[in-house]
Amino acid sequence: MSAPNQGRQSPDPERQTGAQQQDHPSQPGSGKLDNSQSKNEGKDDQTANLTSNPKHILQDHAETKTGKGTGASS
Length: 74
Hints:
- Residues 1-74 are annotated as: Disordered.
- By secondary structure, the chain is mainly alpha-helical.
- Helices cover 18% and strands 0% of the residues.
- It has one domain.
- It has helices spanning 43-47, 59-66.
């Protein structure tokens, strides 16, 4: 290789490993899946009292600041 920084260059295609050539894993579907029954226990309790679209922290302030009404007029 004739690049100035040889340590940062990719190897020749015939010398590349499978991961560098975008090969798929030898065992398809080898990712770990969590099929346990207890993983969903307690999730209903956590979200039972939550609103689907909560009010923003500054929503009341924005409505009073921009709303028409008895405010200081300039």
